[in-house]
Write a structure and sequence with these properties.
158 residues, 4-stranded mixed sheet, 7 helices
Length: 158
């Protein structure tokens, strides 16, 4: 997959920001907006244009949880594992998602539809247990409700 990456959109970003001091985070944000994650080739190009070592760019990217280094599925499920969600059964929801999709935390389904990521508090504890799918929040989850959501998402993707 990485072999087919078109780096031309990133060149425009680098033309604008590469010479601007302290703009690495901005460049990485634009890169992720373009590709959905930070491809290795993009990091190398950023390094060439900014003079910042790839190891340093990787270090910054790893520090900020918003950045990803692997492509994700059409639906990124972020399942909260914070205290309130844990107390209200997030483990059961995690198990339901694993059983339904056959993936573990950090993995993507073979059809590229779903990725699963366990995260810390999503900031809406009163709705616990909670998950976000892309920009949408789903609260008061039960195993049945979770299965229904996954089914609807799968159908909507067809
Ligand atoms: S603990 Fe899950 S939203 Fe806060």
């Amino acid at each position: 997959m990485n072999d087919n990456i078109d780096l031309s959109p990133l060149c425009g970003v680098l033309d604008e920001y590469a010479a601007v001091k302290g703009s690495l985070i901005t460049i990485l944000q634009h890169t992720q907006d373009i590709y959905g994650y930070l491809p290795k080739e993009a990091i190398e190009l950023i390094s060439e244009h900014t003079g910042i070592a790839t190891s340093e760019i990787m270090g910054v990217g790893t520090f900020y949880t918003q950045f990803r280094f692997e492509p994700v599925g059409k639906y990124l499920i972020m399942l909260c594992q914070g205290t309130a969600c844990h107390v209200n059964g997030s483990e059961l929801i995690l198990q339901t998602i694993k059983d339904e999709l056959g993936i573990d935390d950090g993995q993507t389904t073979e059809d590229g539809l779903f990725s699963l990521k366990c995260v810390a508090c999503l900031g809406c504890c009163s709705l616990s247990p909670v998950m976000m799918v892309n920009e949408d929040t789903y609260g008061s989850l039960t195993p049945d409700k979770t299965k229904k959501i996954l089914k609807e998402l799968r159908e909507a993707a067809v």
